[in-house]
Predict the structure of ABC transporter domain-containing protein.
Amino acid sequence: PAAGDASAPFDALVPQAPAASLSALEGREVSAWFGERKVLERVSLRMEAGQVTALIGPSGCGKSTFLRILNRMHELVPSASLAGEVLLDGEDIYDRGKKLQDARKHIGMVFQKPNPFPAMSIYDNVIAGLKLTGKRASRDEKDEIVERSLTAAGLWKEVKDRLRQPGGGLSGGQQQRLCIARSLAVKPKVLLMDEPCSALDPTSTRVIEETMSELQKEVTIVIVTHNMQQAQRVSQQCAFFLAAQGTPGAIVEHGDTEAMFSEPQDQRTYDYVNGRF
Ligand code: ADP
Ligand code: MG
């Protein structure tokens, strides 16, 4: 509606601003190599504060590599190198003098296969996430962190009476939510999720998706998924990655999720989201 139209709801005229405390993450011209082999070509993507951004595309197109660059895990591979910038609230996490630990603290990661410490208690699994801060927490602080993190991960009610039992005794879906809680213990600004539901049954998947929609109120989320329905259910922004025969992965198209699925601008996006690839 045109400005000045008295019937137009005010909200429609003003872009929805995210809560001030939420953070945006931006990759600028990110390229990546393993040895001589280039696997990502100038990927630029802004992951907006308070939104869920889905990264989609065929296997091998560099989605996981991009995600790992976003929290400085890529540099742990000896043969790996990269170019470009990653900005968290406008500050390059790769700036000289910036510590690896800081990037990890602000930018958490959850993997495809739930990886809690199986013999460690549920309580201690969550507290293990605090190692990144290097700070000592009192017993009361720890109790509070465990309750807050498990609540945010949608697991508190199910485990509050058995916090001393081993994490490995939980179901797959619960273990994944425990890993989410462990990431949340340090109050990260961004949560990266690499196919977090691929190893889970449909019911657990649904529970994680519901958890995400609550979670995005407090943390900016980036999720890699091969499930097109899931991308549409959980994300507001979407980026389609592709590595054409013998070329490095690159973003073909990105933008509003609904628009990308209903009216993709590129034929290759159309084919992929419609299951033709
Ligand atoms: P995706 O997550 O989209 O499936 P990846 O980021 O895992 O893609 O992989 C992108 C490309 O990088 C692939 O060709 C893959 O074989 C290669 N690659 C990934 N990890 C390594 C590694 N540690 N060493 C060498 N090549 C790798
Ligand atoms: Mg991957």
Q: What stands out?
A: Confidence is low (pLDDT under 50) at residues 1-5. The first strand starts at residue 25 and ends at 34. Residues 55 and 63 are 7 Å apart (CA to CA). The beta strands are 25-34, 37-47, 52-56, 80-88, 91-92, 107-110, 190-194, 220-224, 237-242, 250-256.
